[in-house]
Amino acid sequence: MRGASSAPTGRIPVALALPAAAGLTFLVLPLVGLLTRTPWSDLPARLAAPGVLDALRLSLGTATAATVVSVILGVPLAWLLARSSFPGRRVVRALVTLPLVLPPVVGGVALLLVFGRRGLLGGWLENAFGVTVPFSTTAVVLAEAFVAMPFLVISVEGALRAADARYEEAAATLGATPWTAFRRITLPLVLPGLAAGTVLCWARALGEFGATITFAGNFPGRTQTMPLAVYLALESDPAAAIVLSLLLLVVSVAILAGLRERWMSVP
Amino acid sequence: MTLLDAHLVASLGAFRLDVALTADAGEVVALLGPNGAGKTTALRVLAGLHPIAGGHIRLGGTPIEGAPPHARRIGVVFQDYLLFPHLTALDNVAFGPRCQGIRRAEARRRAGDWLARMGLADSARAKPRQLSGGQAQRVALARALAPQPTLLLLDEPLAALDARTRLDTRAHLRRHLAGHPGVTILVTHDPVDAMILADRIVIVEQGRVVQTGDAATVTRQPRTDYVARLVGLNLYRGHGAGHAVALTGGLTLTTADVVDGQAFVAFPPSAVALHPHAPTGSPRNTWPATVDGVERHGDHIRVHLTGPVETAADITPAAAADLDLALGRQLWAAVKAAETRAYPASG
User: Looking at domain A62-221, what is its CATH homologous superfamily?
Assistant: First the structure.
């Protein structure tokens, strides 16, 4: 007798095959459209156009910075949600996932209300340190981190819940302080989940548009990331928008493939 | 010298544990009891992994009940070992010394020594999933011993092994536990493990200590039904007066031992003879009994009997054939006084 989960016997149910094919087509067709409309002949010239590389560099830099911020703040947050029990933990978890369901533009407005000149923190930051956050590269990083961090927290929290907490007990009986146990046992055990969360977080940050344009504006070289550049180009020069989109697509796929090779491979 | 002096009070849901435990340096004490008796909870309280609700734990005179597990100078071998899956056997064993602040190279050298002592020098680079059950058990023991704990705790150390590996590992474990200078507390539900590995057996039932003693005492003079079943004895409680013990079931047994007051009477199933009719002659202890169950037990037949007392009797297959052992069949059971053992119920 064969188990239900054993190798398929060759027949895929039509009820699954048809929607699956339709789903695949739906996901791939826009990419095909992008490729067929790409002006291949003057592609090199358009890539060399001023501002293109700047936007790409800014996008990669801010997405990476936002991911670093998310890892530094998000991993401890995930640990707190997974391992400790405190009153209101359910509320905290709901708050952490809020940016997932919030329209990014609303997130951008909310960030303005905090860091803007008359915001909760903005006035104090400007008076005490002379720092103005909105419409700066820092604002791009903050907007991206706000939108992308929940992906990391959820992913790492899931990995922590799946990891056996008794390994931490075993480490404690061997003389490990809670911090040592976290660093040397827990963190390595959840590394696949952390890697997946980091990639998701980075990808979301790279594609961020709504919160960025609201909170950071659209200044070339300073806050104009690739998605913003694509949107702007679409109004004046659709061919340029296609080239920018293609570039963003190729770079993200290349980086994700590289990371997958390096981190996501199951030993 | 008493190295461990503990009175463990803890609760787990509705269950309440209240166990006093002392042990000398070098002593191996087994906590033996049925599942759910609270043995593992007692171990976790000693390790600091379960909160203590009352009592005390003194290790070498120092109270440690308030200390976190990492400050207790303990070593634990968990039932399923909990070897860190991402570390090699060597780094698992080196983990404890590393936590004591010993440099990596020195910690690894010590870990290598421990693995060699366990006969596992070749498996140093293996990850836990590449180890067999017996090897994993030895790595877990080496890991627990490497930080040189004062108190070594083992939770059902042989339960996860198959029968063959169990035999080898038990002998191996015995050698290493004998060499441990601190106190070893071993939790098990297997009387054979307890008798072979431990110097002293503490029997725990429903969160309480019901009997303490060396293997010989516990096997000869069980004090509860659980212990009697474990060691394969019929056990009855009654009131003794000289050579006679009046059992609670109404039957009075004549015993070789003299006992007065509340007393236990114990005899092995092989001492029970079965007769189709009331026997006449030497054995004075006879009573009517009804066959309640029959099962094969090695090279003999075990017969469960009801009557004034519940009794297990072991008889040969030939005798069983003569008796026609149908369920509900009326027989007579007989035990010679010389084969019984009677001892006071108190103390």
Answer: MetI-like (1.10.3720.10)
Give all domains of chain B, ordered by start, each with its CATH number.
Answer: 2-226 (3.40.50.300), 233-344 (2.40.50.100)
- What is the structure's pLDDT at B282? 58
Please report the pLDDT score of residue B62 as a whole number: 94
Structure tokens at A73: 């703040």
Q: Is A175 in contact with B76 (Cβ distance < 8 A)?
A: no
CA A60, distance to chain mean position in Å, is 12
Average pLDDT over every residue of B96-101: 95
**Nearest neighbour of A177 by CB, restricted to B70, B75, B84:** B70
A 10 A CB-CB count for B265 gives: 26
**Would you say the ipTM is above 0.90?**
no
Reading the block at residue A68, the tokens are 């670093």
At B223 the pLDDT is: 87
User: Per-residue pLDDT for A247 more than 70?
Assistant: yes
Helix (H) or strand (E) holding A188: helix A187-189
User: Between chains, do A166 and B82 touch, taking CB under 8 Å as contact?
Assistant: yes
Residue B66 has pLDDT above 90, yes or no: yes
For position B281, what pLDDT does the model report? Answer: 67
Instruction: Measure Cα distances from A145 to A69, A75, B160, B226 in Å.
Output: 7, 13, 47, 62
Dump pLDDT digits (tens) for B16-43: 999 999 999 999 999 999 888 999 999 9
What is the C-alpha to C-alpha distance for residues B316 and A154, in angstroms, rounded to an integer?
67
Query: Which of A173, A177, A187 to mutate to test binding with chain B, by most B CBs within 10 Å of its CB?
Result: A173
Q: How far is B124 from chain A (nearest CA, A)?
A: 19
Contacts of A169 in chain B (CB under 8 A): 49, 69, 82
Taking CB atoms and an 8 Å limit, are B70 and A167 in contact across chains? no
Mutation for testing the A interface, residue in B79, B84, B152, B154 having most A CBs under 10 Å? B84
